[in-house]
Amino acid sequence: MKAVFKLSNLLFVSCFTFLLVLLLLFRGSQQPLSAAEVEAYLGKIEQQSQVPGGRHDLKALRHFLENDDGLPFYTVNLYKFNEQAQYLDGRENPGTGRQAYDRFSAVMVKLLAQQFSQPIFGSDWMADNGNDWHRLVIVGYRSRRDIAEIFASDAFADAASHKWASIEKNERLLVQGLHIPALKFIPATLLLLLTFAFICLKLRAAKKPGASF
């Protein structure tokens, strides 16, 4: 019986530690970017030599980063794709605009995962909404630091050629969600449930004669 209790304690500690680390990772630092960090990120982005690269509006990006509040936010993205991908190098058989964007998206999803940010929702079902947009994508970021990390990476600058070859036009809104639950609430909820279940099991076991922890 003692061996069973020791094993249950070990499992609880292991699961508790894992969920706590996961919660902290999804939560992020929640510290606004410092002026030095803003300059460092912008410096990296300005030095990128990839063509077309991220094609950032550096003035708008500076304003966005300098006004960081450290809080999570969402980007709501609308895309209209080129019928045929328009690469600057004039490559043969570039594929459709959608195919080019999917190549960019495959890289972007990995970069998001590295920052513990995530796609929230995506849909191609836009034809019956009285507009000419082809795709809607909502992405959740832990902070502006995370999107700065992505923009400053060579992987993003390299993959951006697929993005700009794919789209005829796009719109992006930056919002802070009021009703969309962040993924950090999943490990937080599991953490509470695990703790509650462990306490219940301990109390139940304590009522048995000869129980030992």
Query: How does the helix and strand content classify structurally?
Result: alpha+beta
> What is the averaged pLDDT score?
82
Beta-strand content bin: 5-15%
Characterize the largest beta sheet: strand count, sense, and whether it forms a barrel. 4 strands, antiparallel
Strand order, largest beta sheet: 2-3-1-4
Please compute the radius of gyration using only Cα atoms. Answer: 23 Å
Helix percentage: 40-55%
Cα shape: elongated
Q: Return residue spans where pLDDT drops below 50 for at least 5 consecutive residues.
A: none
What's the CATH architecture of the largest domain? 2-Layer Sandwich
Kindly report the CATH topology of the largest domain. Alpha-Beta Plaits
Number of helices: 7
The CATH C-level class name of the largest domain: Alpha Beta
Number of domains: 2
